[in-house]
Specification:
The complex is a heterodimer of chains A (110) and B (114).
Chain A (H helix, E strand, L loop, with lengths): L2 E5 L2 E5 L4 E8 L3 E9 L5 E6 L5 E4 L2 E6 L4 E6 L8 E9 L4 E3 L3 E6 L1
Parallel strand pairs in A: 2-11
Antiparallel strand pairs in A: 1-3, 3-8, 4-5, 4-9, 6-7, 7-8, 9-10, 9-11
Chain B lengths: L3 E4 L2 E4 L5 E7 L5 E7 L5 E9 L2 E4 L6 E3 L9 E3 L8 E8 L9 E2 L3 E5 L1
Parallel strand pairs in B: 2-11
Antiparallel strand pairs in B: 1-3, 3-8, 4-5, 4-9, 5-6, 7-8, 9-10, 9-11
Classes of the chains: A mainly beta (110), B mainly beta (114).
């Protein structure tokens, strides 16, 4: 059975800290790994990582895919209170639907 | 603006009632999905549809039903057979195919049993 695990499940930091969120997966015929940010309602897309694109960066956020270790990390530098959200990791296998992890709840205190 | 619209935002259901959650998209996406989100459990797939007039059960389909009569619309009915329906429901859409594409989500419907 395909599985996606995220850690930590919850994290509290102060503004300016750097955080690393982890996602590991067990799927057959891996196709892509996606990161989403969910603040209150709709998850919004952050990054997609594939075999041909294992590293992505946008502003203070960056993500790396380690296909050998079947995992990915999402880094956020110089955190702000607006980064407080649930960060969801999802994995797609060939011919399958997305499998989502439980999410990491990040709280950034002023 | 293109996007996915879910309604209502909040819904209260009495025991034994069927309720229908609406999901409409104008992104011209072929595939649509319904997820259920409970605290600490991420998103679980209820039903999905890859094309009009066709849909498949996801991981937790029991107590739910769907229809896909139009490309733009994918309503979800929570039936009285669903014993624990209180949750946050998210609808998503995407264009499947050879090119990796992300899913776009609606704003969700929070369903509460009273």
């Amino acid at each position: 059975e395909d599985k996606v695990v995220q850690s930590p499940l919850s994290l509290v930091v102060h503004e300016g800290d750097t955080v690393t969120l982890n996602c590991s997966y067990e799927v057959t015929n891996f196709r892509s790994l996606l990161w989403y940010k969910q603040e209150k309602k709709a998850p919004t897309f952050l990054f997609m990582l594939t075999s041909s694109g294992i590293e992505k960066k946008s502003g203070r956020l960056s993500s790396i895919l380690d296909k050998k270790e079947l995992s990915s990390i999402l880094n956020i530098t110089a955190t702000q209170t607006g980064d407080s959200a649930i960060y969801l990791c999802a994995v797609e296998a060939l011919g399958q639907n997305f499998v989502f992890g439980p999410g990491t709840r990040l709280s950034v205190l002023p | 603006d293109g996007g996915i619209t879910q309604s209502p935002k909040y819904l209260f259901r009495k025991e034994g009632q069927n309720v229908t959650l609406s999901c409409e998209q104008n992104l011209n996406h072929d595939a649509m999905y319904w997820y259920r989100q409970d605290p600490g459990q991420g998103l679980r797939l209820i039903y999905y549809s890859q094309i009009v007039n066709d849909f498949q059960k996801g991981d937790i389909a029991e107590g739910y039903s769907v229809s896909r009569e139009k490309k733009e619309s994918f309503p979800l009915t929570v039936t009285s057979a669903q014993k624990n329906p209180t949750a946050f429901y998210l609808c998503a859409s995407r264009t499947p195919g050879q090119t990796n594409t992300e899913a776009f989500f609606g704003q969700g419907t929070r369903l509460t049993v009273v």
